[in-house]
Structure of UvrD-like helicase ATP-binding domain-containing protein:
Amino acid sequence: MSTEGKGELGGEQQFVSLIHDRLDALRTGAERAVQAGLARAATGLQARLERDVTVSEQGRTVTELDAVESGLCFGRIDFTDGAAHHIGRIGMRADDAERTPLLIDWRAPVARPFYLATGYEPMGLRRRRHITTRGRTVTALHDEILDLADTLRTGHEDPSGDAVLLAALNSARTGRMADIVRTIQAEQDRVIRAPHRGVLVVEGGPGTGKTAVALHRAAYLLYAHREQLARRAVLIVGPGPAFLNYIGEVLPSLGETGVWLATLGELFPGVTATGTDTPAASAVKGAPGMVDVIARTLADRQRLPDPVLEIDHEDHGTLTLDRETARAARAGARDTGLPHNLARPHFAFRIIDALTRQLTERIGGDPYGGPNLLDPTDVAQLGKEVATSPAVQQAIESLWPTLTPERLVADLLADPAHLTDEEADAVRRAPGTWSGGAFTPTPWTPADVPLLDEAAELLGEDDTAARAAAERERRERVDYAQGVLDMAYASRTHEFEDKDDDESEILGVQDIVDAERMAERHEESDHRTAAERAAADRTWAFGHIIVDEAQELSAMAWRLLMRRSPTRAMTLVGDPAQTADAAGCGSWETILAPYVEDRWEYTRLGVNYRTPVEIMDVAAAVPRAADPAFEPPGSVRSTGVRPWARPVVAQNLAAAVAEAVKAESAPGAAEGRLAVIAPRALHASLVALLPEVSAGRSPDLTSPVVLLDPRQAKGLEFDTVLVVEAQTFADSDLYVSLTRATQRLGLLHTAPLPGALARALHGEGEAPGADATDGVDAAGGVDGVDAVSGS
Ligand SMILES: Nc1ncnc2c1ncn2[C@@H]1O[C@H](COP(=O)(O)OP(=O)(O)OP(=O)(O)O)[C@@H](O)[C@H]1O
């Protein structure tokens, strides 16, 4: 056996320094281009356009290059045929004539053996190397020998092949999710690189990497289908603002900034959903029956006179509109099949026509039964007068009002019809409150957003005025562009003029671009990314949609998402055992059948990378109580630290939590971040005793101690978790809360814990202390050992 390890670290250091120099050069180039662009006085349309495009594109490049700096190169694969590639966050080429590849993008097909090769299936590899860096310094190498006949050794061998993975999993959390690009596991890689078309469902228990995989899949899809997806944008839907903050850095660290991360509550432009619903309200609002309820509420707004409507026409006295005439007009408008606001002119036309006939009859009617005395011009004039009469317009508005989605849904919630009494009571709410002469609208909730979207579909947007304005603007741009072209023609060079135009090979700008095209190009100079434009457009069709915690979405939410995904290119990740929302939609079959029937793929992730086995054994007792066959995903780690539980008397609860936080933050306990997960009703009292804590709707997760309610904890993770009053949590909330810790878990409770959980904590058969005692004293120190059971 020989060793080629001498100088291996030095060799890799040389390479890493080289690619960082190259990164610097690329960044400097982009920064200079931005500076030069900003300094350039661009007067013409074309020049302005070019300048703006350069500044925004190069600006984005600078941001992207900055973000991939850390851990730029993390791997190397050596093939048995002597070829070798370094793998990194982005692809880079040398600045030579051949543009020699330096660093291979982790998403490139050639990088795949880095993630998939095994001793059994080496995929042509002799060796896989993990390169660990701090800043620009190489600090460690871990080599796996995949060609068993290979006797060369480097001195950096990692026989188990999981040292880098375990180091990543054991490292202290930062409050921001990190990418897993260095250690993607084979089952995850297959999901990440699955075909872009169609619906892919990825199911897996807590900590199996569903979120990580979803994010890396977005980056992969953008790499593999850049042309298409950069234009149509990728949307990732996550459960809440705290979660989006938590995952916000992953995609930039992979060099991707063009993905829109949003909660359901953000998917209706112009509406910020800051309100919350009771579980009963969200269940009613999410049910599929709401489609019918909204449609019927809208139909109610298309009213009929009862029995007649008297219209006081300014010039011609009272006109009467009877129920039958209005009904015929309504039927005609409905028969157009157009949305409400677009069908309104059809209704109005029929009403105006009927009223004009009435007036024509009154003014020109022959009492002896002869033909009407008015000629067609008089009738047309009368029609005009009727149509422009404010009283007539008002009558039409009262029967077929122009509606906004906000108006329709607010009215529905204020006075819910077509629901059972119980459902109506659950959702009923005032549109707002008056105070000191000012009206404050009731905030929208996330469950309102799909209702607004549904209403918007039924209402349609009367965009006649907007389209006319857009056409006016376009004409102005064309005229301006024509002016620019005329000037360009007038100022063409003498040489050019000396030549016969037809034969000339020198093309002027007017030869290659006409005014229409130039105006279009100006319009294209909307420098927002596709993701930014998509965020502002309710009708945007996304190139791909990824839904995290997909099990939470209601039937109404799925309707909204499917509208945004006409091609049905979607990745849905979730875990039915963690379903918390009462409106959560049940099985994947139920969710997907209306949209794709059974044409969807299903895959499972089976390894838990987050929660050590000691914690998972306890957490699994919760779903197992309802389903004895329940099997959690197998944990990849064990810490030797058992979760603890401590009963406390109610009046001491906040003090006991503060004490536990202190003890769990002391040297010797886990480093990193600690979360207290407690019912919202306790937050005020806990905040009072935890001065350093970050709490609220979107707490700062990078703070050492964070206070969350169980719903906010969804998708997050911390080194240490303290669950307070677990016995009050719904099962799924409890399961989620218990599976958030990477190192240590403690429970504080003022009443007995659910039996199955207590037994798991205390060891089978041992009854927990049901009566609360003063836990602070009884705890006898929070050393990670259960003070109650004494285990
Ligand atoms: N291949 C991997 N390499 C390193 N870390 C990983 C890997 N896969 C997952 N992890 C880590 O495991 C933890 C759990 O991952 P993630 O949050 O994606 O799981 P999840 O399935 O979405 O969990 P939950 O459903 O409980 O929210 C994260 O810290 C993630 O970085």
Remarks:
- Confidence is low (pLDDT under 50) at residues 488-512, 765-791.
- DSSP finds 32 helices and 23 strands in the chain.
- The first strand starts at residue 73 and ends at 79.
